[in-house]
Amino acid sequence: MEKILGDKIKLLRFVKKISKSSAMLEEMRSENEIIDCKGCGFQALKNEWRKHQYVCPKCGKYKNIAARVRIKYVCDEDSFREFGRWIKGYNPLDFPEYDKKLSDMEKKTDMPEAVVTGTCRIGGYKAVICVMDSRFMMASMGMAVGEKITRAVEYATKKKLPLVIFSASGGARMQEGMLSLMQMAKTSAAIGKLRETGGLFISVMTNPTTGGVTASFASLGDVQIAEPGALIGFAGPRVISQTIGEKLPEGFQSAEFLYEHGLLDGVVPRAEMKGYITRLISLHQKGKRIQLASDKNELAGNIEEELVSRSADERVLIARNEARPTGRDYIDRLISDFCEFGGDRLHAEDVSIVCGVGRFHGISVVVIAQERGKSLDEKISHRFGMPNPEGYRKAERLMKHADRFGLPIITFVDTPGAYPGKEAEENGQGSAIAHCLLTLSRLRVPVVNVFVGEGGSGGALAIGFGDCMIMLENSVFSILSPEGFASILYKDSSRWKEACENMKMTAAELKEMGICDCVIKEDGEGAHEKSEPVFKRLDAAIAENLGRLMKLSGEDIVKQRYRRLRKVGKELI
Question: Do residue 73 and residue 56 come from a single domain?
């Protein structure tokens, strides 16, 4: 008996040894597998591709990767904890061969369905993550996928955790009919509940993200980003081409195409994805109330000092000086960890307004800055700082984002005015500005406006009023450009200097009228000549006023802002 038992143990050890050897051989075979790039034909061993996160080192084309590989790239080591693995698809319509298809897919991918869900840490921050895997029936969304994603969203809502979803899908699961289609509504409703509780949702679109996934949760992120070159759209390019009978342009429905059309906040390389997501989560952490610096010893003299005597027309010319710091310069000097958001989510990206989230004295803030560009090419692409409706809609989107997450807003105003073009009117320039004003008036977070150059009419006011208006000494803010004013009232645009004096548009004059709160001195000929003292004074002024405003409740901020607006001109009537 003992001999038989001993023989069995030896046999089991032998089998285990053989199995282990087979696994090792399989692994060696896998490591020695040569993989080629479909973009340029470059060939390399699998291990070489792994070093580059499956991005071709020669042409930069991205390969689709398995869900668990992506989890390794994004999540902190050994932090991922899967949930919902037991949820599997089945055949509710008794569709022919569907049961076998599901079984084959599970064996091939070692996944019960097309999405992996769980909790993890990303850059040290706990989060809920969902990763779709296009190897499993093109990651089409059936009942199981919809249920797993919905449960993940609900868990993030309940535990107040940020949610990150990597989408990769061919759309709805045809074999499940209407039961599949309804998952679009179900997942969207779950995202709606997450929004109501102030939860952060970062949507990452990878290749391909199409159909019902694009038309549901994937397009509902607070922040929407994509991997370079990813195919993203509702209808596939072949369907569109056949329907309209036209050849589609190069790059149509690519991530870059969607960014240009305002539907993405950014296109993020795979190697930078973890760092980018970490920064986003960090910037949206709740309950952080770091004391803003307000030590007078840190200030470069008093915030407000005696101003140099200059005529209004001289200040207009200084405000327009091409060498003055632009909106991006102020962001670079005053804001750290800035994460730019792009697009109006409707039509286009507008580079003449820069929006995003960053840190000011350790506090997360939303920044909205008008940008006129520096080189001639930049000035032309930025329309010399004159925003289109898309720019104002992007600004309004960030205002609402700030309100949802309780982030103070800092705006930098520098524009001759809203762009007066045919397309701008067709796309609703007036409406876009009006909605900015309406949204600004009801925000429950502090808004500090900084005029750094020219402030022209409603195009400047759209991001130029709030709870505290700070103006640089040589900045101006007017109902219209002096040339336009002179042309309308004097029928002679050459009388613009006279108009400057009569319009009362300088910082000192606006402070006297009670519109501006604080004027920052500019040394020498102005900020274009000596910018460093301006940056220091401005930093101190924003910190002092933001610190004061952050002590107020959201309700008090709204009431105070309304009273502030009601007082403008009231005493004259």
Answer: no
